[in-house]
Amino acid sequence: MTVTLLLEQMFNGLQSGVMLFLIAAGLTLILGIMDFVFLAHGAQVMIGAYAAASLTALTGNFLVGIVLAIPITFASGFLLEFLLIRHLYRRDHMDQVLATFGLILFFNELIRIGFGPAALFSDLPKALSGFVNILPDAPYPMFRLVVIIVGLACAIGIHMLVSHTRVGAMVRAGANNEAMTAALGINIRLLRRFVFAVGACFAGVAGMMIGPLTAVEPGMGEPLLILSLVVIIIGGIGSVRGAFVAAVLVGMVDTMGRVLLPVILRSFMGQAAADGAGPALASMMVYILMSLVLVFKPTGLFPPKG
Amino acid sequence: MLRLHEVEAGYGSAQVLFGVSFAIEAGACVSLMGRNGMGKTTTVRTIMGQLPLRGGSIDRFGDATPGRESFELARAGIGLVPEGRQIFSNLTVVENLSTFHRPARDGETLWTMDTVLDLFPRLRERLGHAGNNLSGGEQQMLAIGRALMTNPRLLILDEATEGLAPIIRQQIWDCLAMLKAAGQSILVIDKNIGALARLADHHCILEKGRVVWQGDSAALRADPQLTSRYLGV
Ligand SMILES: Nc1ncnc2c1ncn2[C@@H]1O[C@H](COP(=O)(O)OP(=O)(O)OP(=O)(O)O)[C@@H](O)[C@H]1O
Ligand SMILES: [Mg+2]
């Protein structure tokens, strides 16, 4: 295990962490603030990935594809809230689970009908497909670095939006006391729709960035949804700051665990046993992390006040 | 300005208001009195659209459409200082104020951040504090300032002096007298009958969800039986 490899894996962990944050940021607000169980957030990731991949193919330009796909993801969140979700706020959690689980199936099938069951692959533009040296003699894929930068930029954007804008203050006020917020002239229904649309938008951006790294295919959002739920629980349901810390933590633990665990195990057990147990244990690491957090801080690392 | 006619309202199967009628003219200050649990806060919630109207009608600024939502009524010009203050604990003092600023309807802005902070200089020293790091008196000032930021045509205060030290109470009463002198229409609920008699022009006494007595301050003072009979002091 060389320093270079370790560094590369840390970057991979950070990259997967910031992407998880983009997905979890909206979801933690939907779950924590609106008290709405929304399982179809992974579909927003898929919609973003498909929109970007097909628009990139159509226009022949990755950047143009992304820029055009962003409003589509915003609109999809906005419309979904308007057509369906708003009718479910007053229902109990079980109804919400059933309805939004149905949405997962619906969206996956819709994509299958529209684009076929096979994965889409999009070529990266030349400028993004090379390598850069993050240390002397430590080449790292240019695009992954771009993904990290975009993710961090979005994280700053989300922070500014929530903490330093008037609409962000309205969202926080609504989270604290919805009836009072309304009594001061804020249209809570519109506010919810806005949160939904912005959340869908950032999840979509994650899909656009992850797309070229993995396969753009039906059902691609669900593993990410599960990891985001882990992130939200670790971070504290409803806390955007908590989601950021937890997302980077989960991204790091997941990535580093897969690389380091087999190596560590090999140091005190046989090669074959270590190679068998390593990956199995590695895939459980984030859940073990979540359990540990829940034991010591049942409301998560940063439970929102109020 | 505001006209309640035979208003009925309640919670679930429990009816609380059984026909409440009173009115507030522009520029007037009206008090709503009554012992604990007689329906004062319920009346406020119904005026504010937080509870559905079950009977009767409420005319707010010439609009008696039933089923208006809270946020529409706030935008139409009702400024609420609720029972228990209900400061947003996760917002700073500045945010508690600035988030809800709304210019007055006729275009001229009466209240701004600056004028509200001039009214409550103590808040100026606490601008960056979270809402829950304030003393009770400061929270009450913030709740009043927050309602004023919406530039309301009618200000409603539900127990704005409850649980405050006497000197702070007096500050709140002075502030309300100032607002009234500036032409603000006010509906005020309080337990301090003396202070209400000095401030308000017209008084309504609620008993078990009905207005059992209405009159001006002179009439209120003239009938000492009223206080012992309906206000329990
Ligand atoms: N959220 C609620 N759900 C059910 N019943 C309620 C609720 N709030 C108040 N009530 C009942 O309605 C009645 C009137 O309450 P309300 O709060 O209007 O009284 P009030 O005159 O404001 O009293 P106080 O002086 O104590 O503030 C009481 O019997 C109370 O128990
Ligand atoms: Mg009350």
What do these coordinates show?
The complex is a heterodimer of chains A (306) and B (233). Chain A has a domain at 12-218. In chain A, helix 2 (41-59) packs antiparallel against helix 3, helix 7 packs across helix 9 (188-210) and helix 10 (221-235) packs across helix 12. The N and C termini of chain A lie far apart (46 Å). Chain A contains twelve helices and two strands; from the N terminus they run αααααββααααααα. Chain A is an all-alpha fold and 306 residues long. Chain B is α/β, with parallel strands linked by helices. Chain B has a domain at 1-77 and 196-233: Rossmann fold, CATH 3.40.50.300. In chain B, helix 4 runs antiparallel to helix 6. The longest helix of chain B is centred in the last third of the chain and has 16 residues, at 166-181. The model of chain B has no long low-confidence stretch (mean pLDDT 93). At the A-B interface, helix 7 and helix 8 of A face helix 2 of B. Magnesium ion binds at residues 40-41, 83, 158-159 of chain B.
